[in-house]
Amino acid sequence: LADAFNKTISTKDQDLIKQYNTLIEEMLQVLIYIVGERYVPGVGNVTKEEVTMREIIHLLCIEPMPHSAIAKNLPENENNETGLENVINKVATFKKPGVSGHGVYELKDESLKDFNMYFYHYSKTQHSKAEHMQKKRRKQENKDEALPPPPPPEFCPAFSKVVNLLNCDIMMYILRTIFERAIDTDSN
């Protein structure tokens, strides 16, 4: 990373440039997770039910799913329970079976505001699919296609200083370097 952020680096090696860009992208993703992902009881001011609801919302942002697929994709607690039954009806509506022979849950419109395209349980494929589906949905509704993340819950007191990471000199250097390279037409 130090080499990738070194301003004097000038290489024409496309493989090296690709490695640097991938490394920087992954580092920024981790920083987003550290600062923005607070949906763990004890880290953020959230309950287990809120965590489960958020997981369901993000699964259904990819596509409507049957009950079994949602249950299979939810993390289990120490008692092998997902908590699905307690919260599913708060965030989704059940659509009766059609030609396919099985009913699916669809996300309620009011739950769309909780979609975060930086959701840390998404694989790259799921991330792309969810982003595409949400932009398509917003376009159909004649809304702005931008997908800003929702405001996160507050950190618990023990983690409240995490946000100071965004103010440190190193973070300012990283952001300035990335923005300078983004506007530089000769930059890789």
Automatic annotation (TrEMBL):
Q: Does the record carry Kinase as a key word?
A: no
According to the record, the residues making up region (Disordered) are 126-152
Q: Catalyses which reaction?
A: S-ubiquitinyl-[E2 ubiquitin-conjugating enzyme]-L-cysteine + [acceptor protein]-L-lysine = [E2 ubiquitin-conjugating enzyme]-L-cysteine + N(6)-ubiquitinyl-[acceptor protein]-L-lysine
**Which Pfam family is an annotated match for this chain, by its short name?**
WHD_UBR1
Pathway-wise, it operates in: Protein modification; protein ubiquitination
The enzyme's main class, written as a single word, is transferase
Q: Name one GO biological process term.
A: protein ubiquitination
Q: Name one GO molecular function term.
A: zinc ion binding
Sorted alphabetically, the Gene Ontology cellular component annotations on this record are: cytoplasm; ubiquitin ligase complex
Q: Does the keyword Ligase apply?
A: yes
E3 ubiquitin-protein ligase UBR1-like winged-helix domain: residues covered: 52-148
Q: Where is the secretion signal located?
A: none
The record's listing under InterPro entries reads: E3_ELL-like (IPR042065), UBR1-like (IPR039164), UBR1-like_WH (IPR055194), WH_DNA-bd_sf (IPR036390)
Keywords in alphabetical order, please. Ligase, Metal-binding, Transferase, Ubl conjugation pathway, Zinc, Zinc-finger
Q: What is its EC number?
A: 2.3.2.27
UniProt function note? Ubiquitin ligase protein which is a component of the N-end rule pathway. Recognizes and binds to proteins bearing specific N-terminal residues that are destabilizing according to the N-end rule, leading to their ubiquitination and subsequent degradation.
Query: What protein family does this chain belong to?
Result: Belongs to the E3 ubiquitin-protein ligase UBR1-like family.
Q: What is this protein called?
A: E3 ubiquitin-protein ligase
The taxonomy runs: Eukaryota, Metazoa, Chordata, Craniata, Vertebrata
